[in-house]
Amino acid sequence: MLPNPLSPQASQPFWLPPPASTTAPEVDYVFSFIFWISLFFFSLIVGLMLLFILRYRRRQGYTPKPAPKSHTGIEIVWTAIPFFVVAAIFWVGFRAYISMTVPPERNDEIRVIGQKWSWLFEYPNGWVDGELHVPVDRDILLTLRSEDVIHSLFIPEFRLKMDVVPGRYNRTWFRATVPGEYVLLCTEYCGTGHSDMLSRVVVHEPGGYENWLKEASNLLTPTFRPADLTDPAVLLTTLKGGAAPIHAFVRDALSPATKALLDGWAGGTVPEDLRKAIVDDLNTVLRGEILFDEARFAGVSISEEAKKMLASEPAGDDRIQLNRYLLSDAFPDALSRAPDFAEAGRYIYERKGGCRSCHSPDGTANVGPTFAGAWGQRHAMKDGTEALVDENYVRESILDPMAKIRAGFEPVMPTYRGRLSDREIDAVIAYLKTLAKTSEEPPK
Ligand code: HEC
Ligand SMILES: [Cu+2]
Predict the structure, then answer these.
(1) Among protein residues, the one whose CA lies closest to atom 30 of ligand 1
(2) Domain that holds residue 212
């Protein structure tokens, strides 16, 4: 009997990345099995060869005796042994192959799209993201297709590898066992940007995946967002002191690092890292990750909605709602009900649209032109004409990239027609506008 590859005693080669899926021990077992058999026969054959070279070398004054022409016994042995060895390798490998290719009946399906040169993951609720997020200990079915050439999805810690072929769907599945972050890459050479075809796998703790998906796909639905924290007056009066008691709770919610930044700020222009730290912290509050208790609000004037919510011991979505009420009480001007289009646009640029793999935000030329400072400029086109980078030009570039080709670049941008909605294109435009700001310009 072969040892069960799933047993804890299954050997774990130290030179492989730590396993993080249920498939990993099976694959590692096959790997070790073949490795040790090969090593055994390698040593045996090379060892005997060296021994025979020494022992039966030609010596002076010695005539070799004639060797037998054939020996049925030996021939049976050297046919039978390899037969059983190869059959055992087949059995071990085939068993692992079957369990890798046949998905369990109950699973969560995520569709994977490979394209030059990025990955897109489509979740059951329709949200498309550039990263693969999955819950721990659940069976995930991946249905893979390609937009252009052959790619191959590889997650080393999961021992998961599947080709992504144009014109057909491939399937594979896995069950992640260790929460954390892993690298996902393309292992089929697919052109200039092949080595940039990297992404992240995030394995969430129980419950984290649902929260992430809800938050991610909420991006363009109107919510409270700290829209105007670039206004120094708002920050000064509300956070640095001398403000109404309601602001104490917001200050409490800031992380120690943010508080330190805030204390070090002497007024005037709000530095970008401080603004970002505050926006990040407040978004944590908005996501309901911080719970405020009723006692804290004694003598503080808050809205009726917030009072009602506080009294009802909110959980889940209600908690998010409560924090929104409280934040809007604290920041009547700094929070808007409108979605933050620029922030959403950055998300589309980095993840959903995968624009980042070709367009840089910082001035470095890539496969495509950089977006830094592009807004409002006149760009030379291949056909000798010029185009102004404005709403219509960007929209046309996204939906019909071949209409105008920028001089000095190849016409390789894929169309996003049917893949980005009008609202999402608006968001990308809002994001491009933020990249146009130069340092001399006063913050809006
Ligand atoms: C595969 C690489 C690639 C991807 C992905 C890509 N682009 Fe492009 N893009 C290009 C190239 C190359 C050009 C220049 C040639 C041309 O004008 O078509 C370009 C041109 C543009 C231009 C005109 C730029 C200028 O300076 O005139 C805009 C705007 C643009 N892309 C927006 C986007 C957006 C938004 C996305 C994501 C939703 C995106 N691109 C994704 C390769 C890409
Ligand atoms: Cu690829």
Answers:
(1) 397
(2) 108-217
Q: What is the pLDDT of residues 341-380, one digit of tens each?
A: 787 788 788 877 888 888 998 888 888 999 998 888 899 9
Are 321 and 332 in contact, with CB atoms under 8 Å apart?
Answer: no
Residue with the smallest CA separation from ligand 1 atom 7 is 413
User: Which residue has the CA at smallest separation from atom 27 of ligand 1?
Assistant: 406
Q: Do residue 408 and residue 391 come from a single domain? A: yes
Residue ranges of alpha helices (H) inside 200-271 are: 208-217, 232-239, 246-253, 256-264
pLDDT in tens, 21-70: 999 889 999 998 999 999 999 999 999 999 999 998 888 888 888 888 88
Is the backbone of residue 207 left (phi > 0), alpha (psi -120 to 50) or beta? left
C-beta 352 within 6 A of ligand 1: no
Asked if residue 156 is part of any domain, the answer here is yes
Q: How far is the CA of 164 from the centre of ligand 1 (A)?
A: 24
Same domain, 116 and 192: yes
pTM for this one?
Answer: 0.53
